Amino acid sequence: MYGRYNPPFSVEQEGIAISVENTGEQWIYRRTLGTEDVEKIILGDEKCLIINPVEPLNTPKEITPNLLIEFEKTLLLAGGAKRKIFLTFPIEIGVFIADKGEKDLQLLDVLSLVRQKFTLYGEVSNGVICKHWKSQIYSISPSPNPLQEGIIELTLRNTSSDWASISKVVFSAYGMKLYYAGDVFMRARMDILNRNTAETGFELQHLSGELKSSPLKDFKSRKEAFGVYSLQKLGFVPLKFYMGWGF
Amino acid sequence: MDLDFLDNSLPIFDGTVTLGSVLKFILILSFSTFLVKILSLYLRRSLKDKVSKDAGETIIKILYYGILTIVFFSNLRLLGINPSGFLLAGGVAGIVLGFASQNIVGNLVSGFFLMVERPIKIGDQVQISDVSGYVIDIRIISTLIRTYDGLLVRIPNQQVFTTNITNIVEHPVRRFEHTIRIRYSDDANAAIFLIKDLIDKEPFALLNPSPSVFVNDLGDSSVNITVRIWAPVNEWFGIKTRILWDIKQTLEENGIEIPLPQSIVHIQTDSKKIPEELVPIPEKEIESVLNYEERVLA
Q1: Domain count, chain A
Q2: Could you tell me the residue range of the domain that residue A76 belongs to?
């Protein structure tokens, strides 16, 4: 389903039906998912639609930029150790309208096939609301349904000398960079600073860099996804997330 | 055009103050006010997406009044007033003004402390005394509240500062509670399972702090189940109103009903014993009752 579409078109997959039809002077965008229907009028010619995965923080309503991934099993990391693991994350599908040159993007619609749930990270008085997702820990890249789940390659680095017991990780959407082709992929890191604190962030290098030479499948053909958060006119926002209430 | 009159000294000042210098003072102050207003507008636009509305408004107000105060005092010499004289005069004037305008000064000082302590911010949902609503503005003298039914209420800052303030949105989450009554003949464990399942499907019912569903009371005519759910502070009202009806429907679909108030009446059916109340009253007695009116009239 991911890719670029020139109207008129119609695409249907896993219960999602997206179409753009011409009705005289205007275009009608229609999307159906279960009992939910969305219909929008587009006034403008020479436009194309781009469907790609976006940061999983927009549905059912954007109330937080933070994603908390809870591990199915607690992971113990030795002091000073550095390990790479794979997790899954929920997928949200973004539909953008753009010029033919894929410039001047405007978000048209966001939808998701997976369960939506929120949680609090930290204390009731000063914690942060996070979108919640539960993932198994994989030692090699899994192959989930790309319309439902993506893959995070997470590099864990324990900078302290003590063992670290890790059961969750929180990311900020402002630093997220998604890549897609046969799967949806993000590369992130988590630096454990001490017994209770850690810092998380995303690798921002382009496909032409380290990612391109990665031995993982389809890497050369992966395309950088347009994000909802990267469209917003942001001032100074931290791209990293500081986990101060444990992990 | 002859402008010499501008150099004539004014009778109320000493010789150094002329009509021209007074006009100059007014012009400088007016021009500065105009410039500061433009600066405020520019800052309001440029800070819009970068800082919160509350912080932005505070910065703008401090700049606005700060610049105007500096301009005012630095140009007082045009009026023949030495600003250093304010040190002495200010003390005396302060006492006089303090007595004359206790309320205004009280509101002013309270406004200052409200901005420093920041128990409320612009945009917060608050309850101050018996007024609930959104904080629209915190001014030097008063605080403006838009109530939930759309009315504008102006509360003097002194009252805001000295009364109890409940900030509804200060914390990121809040809890609400529902009591669900089911029949004694229904399975409470099944009801709890169904309610927990419903909460699990509701996105804004938080996983942590976890919700709790438990039998809280064995009432006169029902088993009372308490449902406590934490939700994001901006979403709690929507989920609170939505989930109650969802719980009712789900329970009914599964044969669990909410009972009406009821009492169980036990009726004695022993035919040999005649209840005392039904023992026939002697005829004479009835007659006397029937003739009561006649007897009284006689």
Answers
A1: 1
A2: 3-243
Closest Cα in chain A to B169: A125
Contact residues, chain B, for A124 at CB < 8 Å: 171-173, 209, 230
- CB pair distance less than 8 Å for A132 and B209: no
B66–chain A Cβ distance below 8 A for any pair: no
- Using a CB–CB cut-off of 8 Å, the residues of A that contact B are 60-61, 63-64, 116-121, 124-129, 132, 233-236
Q: A102 to chain B, minimum CA–CA distance in Å?
A: 25
Q: How far apart are CA B148 and CA B220, in angstroms?
A: 37
Higher pLDDT, B295 or A82: A82
The highest-confidence range among B36-40, B178-182, B291-295, by mean pLDDT, is: B178-182
Write phi, then psi, for A81 (nearest 5 degrees).
Answer: -85, 155
Q: Where are the strands (E) in A14-127, listed by range?
A: 16-23, 26-33, 36-42, 47-54, 66-77, 82-90, 92-99, 106-111, 118-121
ipTM computed for the complex: 0.85
pLDDT the model gives residue B85: 67
Of A124, A234, A236, the CB nearest to B209: A124
Distance in angstroms between the alpha carbons of the first and the last residue of chain A: 36
Q: Which domains does chain B have, with CATH numbers?
A: 4-83 (no CATH), 113-167 (2.30.30.60), 173-253 (3.30.70.100)
Distance CA B221, CA B259 (A): 7
Whether the predicted pLDDT of B13 surpasses 70: no
- pTM more than 0.80: no
Residue of higher predicted confidence among A58 and B59: A58
Q: Which residue of chain A is at minimal alpha-carbon distance from B199?
A: A117
Of A117, A126, A233, the CB nearest to B203: A117
